[in-house]
Protein: Outer membrane chaperone Skp
Organism: Brumimicrobium salinarum
Amino acid sequence: MNLLKIKIQTLQINKPMKNILLISTLILGSVAFFTSCNNSNNENVKNETPVKVVEKKQMGEGETGIAMAYYHQDSIATQFGFYREIDSVLKSKELNFQKELERKYRAYQAYEADVQKRMEANEITGYQIEDIQRTAMEKQQAIQQFEQQRGAALQKESMEYQTALMNKIAEAGKEFSNKKDIDLLFFYQKGGQITFINNAYDVTDEFINFLNDREEELMSGFEDEVEAIQEVEEN
């Protein structure tokens, strides 16, 4: 009597989630920090040298001028110490997730190879086929469930950390603007909503130095901020 041959369905694992909401996509839209407007007016200011960012610029005839400035978002991601630290933490969590998923996948492949080897050696009887198929299905489902649930949890955690960090930068941006008498502070990045802006309004280096000088202050209470965001999401 020929032994019944079976074929174990090869498990197809979705490619692990890559760069889950990296800190480089921290802020998804144009974020402006508004502080109180001064009432001084300048009319038709024309200088040969670059305009100082704290100067009031006339936005229209009879309108009150505003002082605006911007910083490069990419520079914040690479030069602000606390930003890099959070990015490193999230990347480490993602890497651990990928390694665990790959370990589970390799274990399933080893199981599949063992079954195939036993079949070729005629060590599997027809009575064992149903149990083998059931076990294979359970292993597949367990891996898929891990990928979906752990991946979703990691994505949620990443969003919470990013939101908390965004709040910290917003607080620092308001303080920086008040100190520099800036009415409008926003970030600039290639591919964003702003096509062009004069370099005279660039305060990237100053803002990064300001953030790094207050790194410990910004780090203080960060976990509490994350927990507060979690509570809001759960309610």
In short: Confidence is low (pLDDT under 50) at residues 1-54, 58-62. The helical segments are 73-79, 81-120, 129-180, 204-213, 215-219, 222-234. The longest helix spans residues 129-180.
